[in-house]
From TrEMBL:
It comes from Rhizobium wenxiniae. PANTHER family: THIOESTERASE 1/PROTEASE 1/LYSOPHOSPHOLIPASE L1. Residues 79-214 form the SGNH hydrolase-type esterase domain. Coiled coil: none annotated. This is Lysophospholipase L1-like esterase. One of its GO terms (molecular function) is hydrolase activity, acting on ester bonds. InterPro entries: Ester_Hydrolysis_Enzymes, SGNH_hydro, SGNH_hydro_sf.
Length: 389
């Protein structure tokens, strides 16, 4: 059955580390990443687009990052990225993937094959993946092979020529298949002045993967692109009387404060948002979201929304968690003005009964000028259990 109007709230992403790195988790937390292009698409669409995930420490066979036995991604949901995988390994995961509920899927495959497989093999596997998804009634957005820096693909090497050929094959495939499209993330990634098609300076941390600046650029382009594919949704409005009530309104807003003007003057600050929150009960899943307007500033290293369960075994959920290098250095945010909505993954409250807490975490370079951020429409409320039965 053809899907003509995919839900903006159920966007899936499939692929390699370029997809997996939109989220990261461990035993006690789950976050959308500031290096993630889908993370930024969610933010810059003002929360209209959503790729939902939830904490999950399980290790499904074939889903281990970089094929490391026993290692978990620490999340499930609609991010189907697994680092290190070749296209054939991605194809093998399709049966499990198709057990999930989504209409639209953005597909990355073949980047890890470029130095070991022929261009025909890569293109054919990409076509089979897309065909399987289309046959299941999904709208498919193909991502071209992402260009790399010369430290990973030699200048003028065969990989660049193969990538261009494969990407033309994807354009032709999409043109001949209903509900299949191409989003060219290279259009926001590649420096047109680069002789060898390298990404813009600062867009990648290693010549292959995204830094924060690269994720922002591609995420902004993707949010604009999906405006033409997914339907509009109503503007998010928070009536002041929509308050949590365990009897009459158990899905109401838990926040006691609906807006804040925050100014960060030190290098790193956490601003408490929402005032004193109500505890809706152990086992309840919570989701937080707020609107944010950030002025242009040269020294921003991080802006994150963090929902914390302060119970003994409580966890944290974070939106736009900072991306750090191996030495701990934080990759910079864009210098431009931007606004959108920050929404961490949903958080399940553990036993304890202590009220959850909501923070806006801001990191600036040492010695930088103050940063004023407008935060509004703070919404924290119970949501349905995201775990499939």
């Amino acid at each position: 059955m053809s899907v003509s109007h995919p839900r903006a709230s159920r966007i899936a992403v499939l692929g390699t580390s370029l997809v997996q790195q939109n989220h990261f988790g461990n035993e006690t937390s789950l976050a959308t990443s500031a290096r993630g292009w889908m993370s930024w698409a969610e933010v810059l669409s003002h929360g209209r687009l959503s790729c939902p995930v939830h904490h999950d420490p399980s290790v499904p066979p074939g889903w281990e990052p970089s094929n490391r036995p026993g290692v978990s991604r620490f999340f499930s949901g609609l991010n189907f990225g697994v680092s290190g995988q070749k296209a054939i390994e991605i194809e093998r995961r399709l049966p499990r993937l198709l057990q999930s509920d989504f209409d639209l899927i953005v597909v990355d495959a073949g980047t890890n094959d470029m130095m070991v497989e022929t261009r025909q093999t890569i293109a054919n596997t990409r076509a089979r993946i897309a065909s399987t998804l289309l046959a299941a009634g999904k709208t498919v957005i193909l991502l071209p092979i992402l260009a790399r820096g010369i430290e990973k693909w030699p200048a003028g090497g065969a990989e660049r020529a193969k990538a261009h050929w494969i990407n033309r094959q994807s354009i032709e495939f999409a043109a001949s298949h209903a509900n299949c499209h191409v989003f060219d993330w290279n259009s926001a990634w590649v420096d047109p002045e680069s002789e060898f098609g390298e990404p813009y300076a600062g867009y990648s941390n290693d010549g292959t993967h995204f830094s924060v600046l690269g994720g922002f650029a591609v995420g902004k382009a993707l949010a604009d692109y999906l405006e033409t594919i997914v339907p509009r949704v109503p503007t998010r409005i928070l009536p002041r009387d929509d308050r949590f009530d365990p009897v009459n309104n158990p899905l109401g807003n838990l926040a006691s404060d609906l807006g804040a003007e925050t100014t960060t003057e030190k290098e790193q600050q956490s601003h408490s948002l929402g005032g004193k929150l109500v505890h809706p009960g152990t086992g309840v899943w919570l989701e937080a979201i707020c609107d944010i307007d950030v002025p242009a500033h040269d020294d921003v290293l991080g802006i994150s929304l963090r929902l914390k369960d302060v119970a003994a075994e409580g966890q944290e959920a974070i939106a736009l968690a900072p991306f750090r290098a191996e030495d701990g250095a934080v990759f910079a945010f864009p210098h431009t003005q931007w606004k959108g909505a920050l929404r961490p993954p949903p958080l399940k409250l553990r036993p304890g009964g202590t009220q959850p807490e909501l923070y806006l975490d801001v990191i600036l370079r040492p010695g930088s000028k103050p940063l004023g951020i407008d935060v509004s429409r703070i919404d924290i409320r119970p949501v349905s259990n995201p775990v499939r039965a």
